Amino acid sequence: MLSKALLKSFNDQINHELSSSYLYLSMAAYAESQNLPGFANWLKIQTKEETEHGMKLYKFINERGGRVELQKIEQPPMEFKSPTALFEEVLKHERKITVLINKLYELALEEKDYAAQVLLHGYISEQVEEEASATSILETLKMAGEKGHALIMMDRQLARRGQN
Predict the structure, then answer these.
(1) Which structural domain range is residue 111 located in?
(2) Which residue of 23, 34, 39, 125 has the smallest Cβ count within 10 Å?
(3) Contact 18, 73 (CB under 8 A)
């Protein structure tokens, strides 16, 4: 059984994961409106992954005898200044999620909830990958620029995500 504090924190994290999914879907819509289908592909895969993260937490709460309490999801931003600004927001958001996961893990440590700790190890590892991926894309955009051939090549590269 989850403690009240962990149950609340896990429910909050479900909201953060589903809000992340919604944010990335909004970003994908922006990318498509800018004729960047590869960027949109990358972001739609992020959307799917964030939903899966939320559902994994949902399942965990239920398996531990808790009650899932879904919360309101705010409307995400719809416009971004550029592809670089878009990925600056992606990285900023992933860093925020990392902080939240780390706080949740700290609570699991305090509560001596070993099952929660084991679950959260996967999330911690995932956040390292998420931040590295966003950083790589952002740094490439900054080096290559956002116009012409470089942007087209970047879009094609991002279109390949999920084809492996």
Answers:
(1) 4-159
(2) 125
(3) yes
- What letter represents residue 95's amino acid? R
Dig out the tokens for 123 from the structure: 């999330």
To the nearest 10°, report the CA torsion of 98, 63, 74, 162: 60
pLDDT for the residue 2: 95
CATH number of the domain at 96, please.
1.20.1260.10
Is residue 164, in this structure, part of any structural domain at all? no
The span from the CA of 44 to the CA of 50, in Å, is: 10
**Count of the separate structural domains present in the chain:** 1
In a domain, 10, yes or no: yes
Closest CA to 133 of 94, 86, 76, 82: 94
| Residue 154 CA: distances (Å) to CA of 9, 25, 26, 121, 133 | 38, 19, 20, 32, 14
Q: Is the pTM of this model over 0.90?
A: yes
Answer for the pair 162, 45: CB distance below 8 angstroms, yes or no.
yes
**Axis-axis angle for helices 148-159, 37-63 (nearest 10):** 40
Residue 164 pLDDT: 63
